[in-house]
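Components:
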Amino acid sequence: MDSNQESKDGSDRSELVSEDGKNTKSVLCQRCGCKVLCPGMAVFAEKELFLPAMQKKRSLNSTGDSVDGDTLTSHWLVDDMYTFENVGFTKDVGRIKYLICADCEIGPIGWHCLDDKKCFYVALERVNHA
Amino acid sequence: MDPRFDVPRRAAGGSGGSANSSPALGAQSRRRKMPPRPADFKLQIIIIGSRGVGKTSLMERFTDDTFCEACKSTVGVDFKIKTVELRGKKIRLQIWDTAGQERFNSITSAYYRGAKGIVLVYDITKQETFEDLPKWMKMIDKYASEEAELLLVGNKLDCETDRIISRQQGERFASRISGMRFCEASAKDNFNVDEIFLKLVDDILSKVGTDIIRKGLSNDDGTKTQSRFHATLLSVKILCRSGHINSDSVAEL
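Structure:
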C-alpha cells in the first residue's frame, strides 16, 4: 500500500525515527513552533486517517459532502494525552477529536477517536521536526 | 466505579506548628538529571464565568498570540494540554474553557469534579457578570473539590474607561471566600494572563505538594534524601492523576 509515499519520504524518515521506532526529534507546530512532543515520547505508526485541510475556513464543518483534506498514513502515536508537551483538542466531530496546536490553534495536526482512549495520532506531514 | 480517590488531604489546619519552614524549596537545588522527563505534575484547571467575559481569550492568551479562525469558529477548542515549568518542576496543565455552556447548570459536574484550579472570570465593564458570581460560587460549592484553588479574575482591564466594577469590589468579593485569590487582567493586552495561571499553579503546588514533599525531605541528609524525594514525587503524581479528568471521562463529556 501507498508505496510511492514510502519511498518518497523514506530518507527523511530514517532521520526522524529511531531504531526503536520513536521520534528522534522534537515535534513542533509548523506555524508557531510550539512544542508538541519531546524527543522519544511517541512511536511511529502507520494508519490511514483522514484529516481535514489546515488553514481552510469551514474545512472542519463537515456537513458530509466535500470536506477538503488529506488521507495521511504516517503518524506519531502516543497512548496518553499527558505525554504531549502542548496540544489542543477540538470539540467532538462525531467520535473524533482533532488535535491542534495549543498556541496558535492551527490544525488539525492530529486525530483522536473517542472509541480508542489510548491512541492519539499526530501526522508527520503536519508538523515540523527539530 | 470510579478509581478516583480523594485529593491529598492535609491535616486540616489543626496543629499548624512548623508549617512555615517549607523545606520544599530545597527541592529546586536537588534537581536530578533525568532523561526525557514526562511531567512531574498533572493538574486540571477550568475557566468559568458568564458569557462574554473573555474565558476563551484567557485560555488562548495564556498560550500565545495569533490564532487561526478556521478551527475555532467551526468546531471549537475543547481543552488544551499545556506544559509549564515552575519551582524546577514540569507541570502539565489540562485547561478547560467552558465557553458556550454559560447557563449555570449546563456545565457538567464532571468539569468541576477533577479540577485542581478554578478560574472564575467576570468582566469589569459589565455589572451583570459580577452579579452572577454568587451563582457560580454555588456551582463550585456544589461540585468542585474543597481542595480546589480558586482565582477570581476581573477581565478586560484594557477597557478601563468603561469600568463599572471597581478593583475594591472584586477584592471584597474574593476576600469573603476563604482561599480565593483575586486579580485583574486583560486578555486583549495579554496583561497578567500568564501570571494568573502560574500563580494558580503555584498555589496548587503549595497545597498539593508541600505536605508530601516535606515529609520526604524531612530528614535532611544528602543522598538518601534524593531518592526519597524521587519517590515522593511519584506519589504526588499519582495523587494528582487521580483527580484529573482522564481520557475516559473525556469520552463521557
